[in-house]
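Please, structure for the following, as tokens.
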Amino acid sequence: MRQRLSMILTFVIIVGLLVLLSSLTYVKEDKSADFEFAPNRSTYHSGPTGLRALHDFLNESGYKVIRWRETPQRLLSDSGKLVTTFVVVGQTQMPFTSVEAEALRKWVERGGRFVLIDRRPDIQLMARSAGWSINRKEFEFPTIDINPGDQKQMTDKVVALQPVQPTVLTSNITSVLPSRFASRLEVQPRHDERIDDYSETESEPEMPVAEATSSSASAAPVVHLADGGGALLVDYSYGLGKIVILSDPYLVANGGIKLNDNLQLAINILTAHGGLVAFDEYHQGRGITQSGLASYFAGTPVLAIALQIALLVLLVLWTNARRFGRPLPLPQVDRRSSLEFVASMAELQERSCAYDLAIENIYMRTRRILVRYAGMDYKSSRSEIAARVASRSSLEAHKLETLMRQCEEAINGEQINWRQSIDLVRRLREVEKELGLRMRSRDARQAAENI
């Protein structure tokens, strides 16, 4: 048991040392510098350009939000039916393919709500509002010197915008503060059907954009936030669904969401119709490429610790019953006791009625002690031994000689029963006690020392 306990303790100590070593040697990767001209609009990103604050706020406030890490085609499956609002923010790390854009438009046409927040929206993601065009105007592009975490740099000379009309998206909003890099949208009736949305110059290539059919056409796009330069927030219907366009990601990013009523605007845009809000993480480079458990613990020492423990378990299994040193003899523990032998012999003698043998075992030892006590030779007669012992003690020589004679006669074959044998043994023990020999105590002590 002690050996097993020591092995278990050794194993626990080794695992603890490995965990401690992994924790001490684990160094979290330094966060790369955040640039506004090359932002990271992922909800996993906690830098100024990320959306971690918005996602966590919505989640902790009780709103239903998820990180969508699959292709847009999955929106058309049963899992996509649970999504009410699909959100794409900023210039994605992976561009949308034409197939993905078509699937997204089809999902919106079936009743989905698509929120696009970007200064330069992707034309593929837009569906035309029948009879209307939405064009993006020129805007100041951020340079590498701009720090997205510096409020003064991001909002230099910017005037807060107020809602142009009371709508669901502008509820409880007094003013919002966009960045100085926010683009503006221009909503105009479309007279030339060959002109595509967001065509800034004649040199830009034409891109196919789906258009709402006359049966699904609705009223003109609604402008919610605007200034003299154009609209900042626009939404319009497409089929049974709706498309919302916000032309400045800074309003919902970690660096700008705390300004003015930017947070309230983000809440209105994303949760106006309730239901499940899905942030597109697939095109932010966070697609499902490994198991969910591995993705959850990515960037932490947990996976390394688990690997080390697995290696230890394999090592223990491999080395099981394998000798790694010189053979050592097993410890021999003598569990036997003289009392066991005595009890066994007594039982055998009782069953076989060998009372003479029992008396012989006891008497012969007593005789040797009496001879030693009397200081005589072992071959001396019992009368001489009894007389010498009586002279040195209070015992009567006649009684001691008689006891010795009766024991010798029983040993030599005289018939006795168990009562007579017990009486003889009792009288022998009385002689020992009278002489102070205490032979039984000595035997018990020797037996205890041998255990």
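The beta strands are 65-68, 83-89, 113-117, 132-136, 185-189, 222-227, 230-238, 241-246, 276-280. Residues 338-450 form one domain.
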